[in-house]
Automatic annotation (TrEMBL):
One annotated Gene Ontology cellular component of this protein: cytoplasm
Record flagged with keyword Acetylation: no
Reaction equations catalysed: (R)-pantoate + NADP(+) = 2-dehydropantoate + NADPH + H(+)
Alphabetical list of Gene3D superfamilies matching this protein: N-(1-d-carboxylethyl)-l-norvaline Dehydrogenase, domain 2 (1.10.1040.10), NAD(P)-binding Rossmann-like Domain (3.40.50.720)
GO molecular function: 2-dehydropantoate 2-reductase activity; NADP binding
Organism for this UniProt entry: Halovibrio variabilis
Cleaved signal peptide residues: none
Key words of the record: NADP, Oxidoreductase, Pantothenate biosynthesis
Protein known as: 2-dehydropantoate 2-reductase
Record family assignment: Belongs to the ketopantoate reductase family.
Domain (Ketopantoate reductase C-terminal): residue spans on this chain: 176-294
Ranges for domain Ketopantoate reductase N-terminal: 7-149
Amino acid sequence: MMPTHWILGPGAIGRLLAHSLSPISAITLLGRRALPARQMLTTPEGKQRVVPLNSLTTAQLASTPPEPPAFLHVTTKAMMAESALAGITGCMPLSTPLVLWQNGFLAQPRITQAWPGPVLCATTTEGAYLTGDDGVVHAGRGHTFIGDLYNQHGELAEELAQTLTLAGLTATAVGDIRQRLWQKLAVNAAINPLVALAGVRNGELRGEAHAGRVVAVVKEVAAIMMAEGILPPNNGQGEEAWFTLVWQVVESTANNKASMLQDVEAKRPTERGAILGPLIESAERHGLGFEVLQGLDDDLAEVEASF
Ligand code: KPL
């Protein structure tokens, strides 16, 4: 029998997962709204594939829950993860393994603490975006790292990494997922709020108008990372290693509209709570400076209030 994967949150990563896993597993895509049964995937090579994907609204799931899944992937935005999960907990055993795909470091520790079953976290560089209710573009291949915050579920992480790799999403099980989540959060904090507030693509951060602000953010972030015991990236040393990584990502994603800018443009709440929130909370706890981060959070809150 094929293993069953439920995917809660039919955004870009959720639908990419559903398309990729569907040839080798029984998938159910879960969301608040019904989706067209026929869904199109555009591959990184530009090929288009239309396939029927099994999707259910969370209300339908509650009325006739199918067989429990081997994994429940939570692919909502960070601030929706807990409420979305709470909405379907009656539909499966509490021992079901979860896989959290959120940015930042807000949903992961909270759900890991609250959920009785195993909780894996995933961080991915797969690039994907939606083209409507029935289409997702797999814009660029990346790599996914899987692990749990307390290193208790190595075998399960390995099993899932193998499944994802077989599905065409190259994945590795790791014992340092907490480090990797914080490292990604550091990069997101240095890029996302600034481009979202200025309304510019990532590459513009290199210009005179913005570069000084990037430096100010990275200085605060690097000190917080050190206090949290997060190693500087790529075996580098101190602040310099963080600057190198951030400028590398700015360069390699120069033409991107960052996810937070897309949220602001669509007048959706941003992920500031999951990205800036844990940094500010950590800085407060360790008695470190966070004026620049707080300024960004306040400015984003003001933008969100105007939606
Ligand atoms: O991950 C990203 C995002 O848009 O959220 C970055 C790294 C900023 C690339 O756009």
